[in-house]
## 1
Amino acid sequence: MRSWHGHDRGAYGALFTADGRHAVTGSGDYTIKLWDLDSFREVRRFEGHSGTVYEIALSADGKRLASVSLDGTARIWDMDTGNQIAEFDPGTGPIYAVAFAADGTLLTGGYDRT
């Protein structure tokens, strides 16, 4: 087990990539970071949320990252570039849960009980 400091506020969501070479973390500093696990250095930063990034999920092919936030949005990111691909803002409050199905369908759960 190893720990390192990389966010300005606490980390909430965390996952490993399928190859085990990288980790991804979401944080109370509103960012998502991709980490190289050999060097423990930041490889890429995903920015756009205006609230705590509560949970993250990786697509089965590892090409897309989904994030949900207390800002009430769900976002999809390109893992290779860090660019935001899509944003979903239902306007009903914080979103706390996210998952990808094997076929790429995105599932979210939020404060509004949906």
## 2
Amino acid sequence: MNAPARLDVAWNAASGALDASRTWASAVVRLECEWDPATGEAACRASLDCAGDVRTVPVPAHARIDVRTHGLWVHLELAAADTVLLRASFERGRLAYCTSAVPGLAGLRGGTYDPPTAILELYQRVAA
């Protein structure tokens, strides 16, 4: 088996976007996935941390991830059944583009959260 690949994406928001009585606090929506690059089968979980109150965001536990590289770019699409959960592009490891259903699944409306930040871990075998 290859070393697992990992993706961790986080969106920051004011918790007031979810609960008007918490306008002073921050919230973070987080998506974490791990997959075997040979199969593309991904195990995912998502959470919403709203001022220390952490709850699970309902995302499918198992999904498929399609990873394509083009020069210095890596493009990802994470989907479960007919639902695209995330599309992202990284240039030299830096997140350059991301669209996702996960903030909406956490209850956030568009425009109520910041652009995401992400960590992508991909490993390639080096010939001996």
## 3
Amino acid sequence: MTFADVKRIMKKHDIWDENYSIEEDKPLAEVALCLDRIKDKYRFYIVERDVIYKQYLFDTEDAACKMFLTEMALDSPELEKYLRPEKKRRGD
């Protein structure tokens, strides 16, 4: 999963874009979930009143995206389906 995938998912489900930031300027909400890249790491963090209070660094973009969706799904349970492993088809 990539940052672009997460952006598409957020738009598809009409998640208010002031509640999150993906590689963009900081969001306007009082508490927001954020994704970005720092050097060779991918970062998921939560900002409250312009202060980062939780931050996680990941080696892969996929892991950061899944953490973002896991946290976002706490308020938007319809996002949980993107966290389930894909079903294998017969013959795979």
